[in-house]
Input
Amino acid sequence: MGLRTLRAFLVRLGGFLRRRDEFDEELASHLAMHVDDNVRAGMSPEAARRAALLKLGGVAQTRERYRDRRGLPGLDQVAQDVRFAVRSLRKSPGFAIIVILVPRFRRLAGAERQLRADGGVHHARDDAVRRRAGRIRGVGAGDAGFFETLRVAPALGRTFQPGEERTDGHIAILSDAAWHKYFGGRPDIIGQTLTLNEIAHTIVGVMPPGFSFRDSDPELVYTVPTSIW
Amino acid sequence: MTNRSSKGEVWQGTLAMMVLKTLDTMGSLHGYGIARRIEQVSGDVLSVNYGTLYPALLKLEQEGYIASEWGVSDNNRKAKYYRLTRAGQKHLHKEAEEWERTIGIVARFFSSNEVS
Output
C-alpha cells in the first residue's frame, strides 16, 4: 500500500465523515422543526420528541437508508479498509492504530458537541433539567467495536453488544470517575437510570479505573450514537 | 411478499414525483415541510415514515432534478432547502404526461372489461 493509496483512503474517509455530519445536521433540523410543531400543538417536550422520532422511523434506520442510497462505504466497508490497512502496515503499527481510532474519535467528538448544543436549546426553559444535564461533563458515543478496539473489559456489567448502536436503545456505560462522582460508587449501579437529554438511560456497565479514551474527559459517560437524539 | 424490491421501486418513483410536484407548487422547501405537505395533500392516506423521504431527495439531487442549500426557517431553525431545477421541471412535466397516459389506458381497460 503506497502513500498515494493511503492518502486516497484517508481522503475518502474524511469525505465520508463530513457528508455524514451534514446529513446528521439535516436530520437534527428536521426533528427540531417537528418537535416545535408538536409542542405548539400542545404536546409536552418529551412526548413531542418521541412522536417526531417515531414518525421519522428511527434516526439510525434513516441514516442507514441514506447511506445505502449515497453508495458510500458503510461502516463495514470502513472496517474492511482498516483490516486491509493493518495487514499492509505491519511495519509501522503506530499508523494503523491511528487509522482505526480516527473515525471512532470523530464520533465521540461529534456526540459531545451534539449534547451541548441540544442541551442549550431544549433545556433553557427548564432549570431543573438544565441543572441535571449540567452535572454530566461529557458524553461519548461508542459501539461494540469501540470498546473491542480498546480491549478493556468492564469492571461491572457489560460493554455494548454488536449491532446495539442501531437499536435506538437508551443504555449507558459509566467511566469509573463518573460512577463515583454521580452515583457515589454504589455497588448496585447496573440497571439504575441516568437521565441524559431528558431521556432515561439504563446503566449496563462501568469501566475500570484508568479507562479513558486518549485525551478525552475521564468522567465520560458512554452511550450508543443514536441514543442522545 | 417475494417482489418487495419491485414494489419498493414503484413506491420510490411515486414518492419522487410527489416531491417534484410539491416543490413545483410550493417553491423552495425543507425536507420536513415536503413530508408534511405530501401527507396533507394525500389526505393522510400515506402513512409513511418521514425518514424514507431523504434517500429520495438525495437521488433527485444526484440526478440534477432538484438543488439544495442551507437557509433559515420561519422559526429561525437552520434547515436545508430544496428547489426544483429546470431539468426537474421538464422531468416533472414529462412524468405527469406519462402518468395521465397510463391512467387513461388503465381506465379504458377497466371500462371495456365491464361491458363484456
In short: The first strand of chain B starts at residue 29 and ends at 30.
